[in-house]
Write a structure and sequence with these properties.
Blueprint: E1 18-19, H1 30-45, H2 47-69, E2 77-80, H3 83-93, E3 101-105, H4 110-123, E4 126-130, H5 144-159, E5 166-172, H6 184-194, E6 198-201, H7 213-216, E7 220-224, E8 236-240, H8 242-245, H9 268-271, H10 279-282, H11 284-294, H12 296-318, E9 334-338, H13 354-363, E10 365-366, E11 369-372, E12 375-381, H14 388-402
Parallel strand pairs: 1-10, 3-4, 3-5, 5-6, 6-7
Antiparallel strand pairs: 2-8, 7-8, 9-12, 11-12
Helix pairs in contact: 1-2, 3-4, 5-6, 12-14, 13-14
The chain binds pyridoxal-5'-phosphate (PLP).
Pyridoxal-5'-phosphate binds next to helix 3 and helix 4.
Length: 403
């Protein structure tokens, strides 16, 4: 591929480590960090001027850039600290009663399960987990009919678990432990036909995919921006469909109005959460422009190619098969490959998998190993600072550790 990514020195990444976990904790390029620091310095120069006069127009400007990037109307979005906060706001606003069901599935993120279990427990509702499992079938090639079959299998496995008590479907855009791109537009289309709202858990999709929220047409979309967009930690957003906005309650109570004297907006409850420093939000346009200057398509194909290289090498080493078809429609910059059966579930509950621990302690390689559907996966994240050399180092270390 005829493309030169920015040098590793564009990030402040520690010299002597191999960082293959942008998916959990994404680091921001130095220019983005500097932009965030400059906004914090501005606040410190005259906090009263900043909070009362500067902050709201600056947030509007940052949101104009972000909403354009994700194909939404800025009036339907609000900045929040991360996807976790966004999901908590949604949980605060879904009315449930005893017997109701919230439908997740077996690829969803652990903390998201906890949020919904707690919400359901409060009222005697319950979380149902649809069984999606390993839906890819070697019989299906990645041509159009194979794609349609696989998409149908994912959608069917979710809707097979829908009942007349289902009040909400919560689904990842890109799953965390298995790194699979879920067909969210199809899921939303089918849910609309049945009158069930959908909340998409989307932190991995922002920048990794060309996200268009207008086309997806979900009810809620939750995202962190420190992941693939590489905005600062502490930046995320919540998208809310119009019909829910006016009565939207925040997850935390503050003034609930503009302190700058602006006309009321639904976002006021969430924009003003005491004297929170909004610098991470205000640096989001710098992160967008960093990737746009690199070229979004180049970013996507470069990182996918490294993930694909990792997939081939890991499949050969472990003699296992990734659960996704080999196509950029199903995985992007992140790939999860099952560990061999002998290494499954060797981790004690709440402990790091021993292989993950040894990769760090002996080889300074940061990479997660997690569980999904009773299977342990190693998940490789590839951003612009990663190269095939990182993957070769990983394979070399794993070969020695597993010998
Ligand atoms: C699918 C998914 N949802 C939600 C989250 C939570 O993101 P954050 O910790 O940035 O709030 C993560 C984090 O890895 C995730 O992978």
């Amino acid at each position: 591929m005829d493309f030169t990514p920015p040098p590793r020195s564009a990030w402040s990444i520690q010299d002597d480590i191999t960082y293959l976990n942008h998916g959990s904790f994404g680091l921001a390029p130095i220019v983005v960090q500097e932009c965030r620091e400059e906004w914090s310095r501005k606040l410190e120069r005259n906090p009263m001027d900043f909070f009362l006069r500067e902050m709201e127009p600056a947030l509007d400007e940052a949101m104009a850039s972000l909403s354009k990037f994700v194909g939404a109307d800025p009036r339907d979005m609000v900045f929040v600290d991360n996807a976790t906060v966004a999901m908590n706001v949604v949980a605060e606003n879904i009315e449930l009663k005893a017997g109701d069901e919230v439908l997740l599935n077996d690829h969803e993120y652990g903390a998201v399960f906890r949020i919904w279990r707690q919400k359901c427990d409060q009222v005697g509702a319950r979380v149902v987990s649809a069984r999606v499992g390993n839906f890819s079938d070697p019989q299906d090639s990645t041509n159009d009919s194979g794609q349609t079959n696989m998409t149908r299998r994912v959608v069917n496995s979710i809707f097979n678990a829908v009942t007349d008590k289902t009040r909400l479907i919560v689904v990842s855009h890109i799953t965390s432990p298995s790194a699979i791109i879920f067909p969210v537009a199809e899921i939303c289309r089918e849910a609309r036909e049945r009158g069930i709202p959908v909340c998409i858990d989307g932190p991995h999709a922002i920048a990794m995919r060309d996200v268009n929220l207008t086309k997806i047409d979900c009810d809620f979309y939750c995202a962190s921006l420190h992941k693939w967009l590489s905005a600062p930690f502490g930046s995320g957003f919540l998208y809310v469909k119009r019909k829910y906005q006016q009565r939207l309650k925040p997850h935390m109570i503050s003034w609930g109005r503009s302190l700058g004297g602006r006309d009321e907006r639904w976002q006021d409850h969430i924009n003003w959460l005491g004297t929170r420093d909004p610098a991470p939000f205000l640096a989001v346009p710098a992160a967008i422009s960093f990737l746009e200057v690199v070229g979004l398509e180049s970013f996507r194909s470069w990182t996918h190619e490294i993930a694909r290289y990792a997939r081939e090498k890991l499949e050969r080493l472990f003699d296992t098969k990734a659960w996704v078809p080999d196509s950029p429609d199903w995985y992007g910059a992140m790939i999860a490959v099952p560990l061999p059966a002998s290494d499954v579930k060797k981790a004690k509950p709440n402990a790091m998998h021993p292989l993950q621990q040894q990769l760090w302690e002996r080889y300074q390689i940061e990479i997660p190993i997690s569980e999904c559907c009773g299977q342990s996966f190693i998940r490789v994240s590839c951003h612009l600072y990663n190269t095939r050399d990182d993957i070769d180092r990983l394979i070399d270390a794993l070969s020695k550790l597993m010998a």
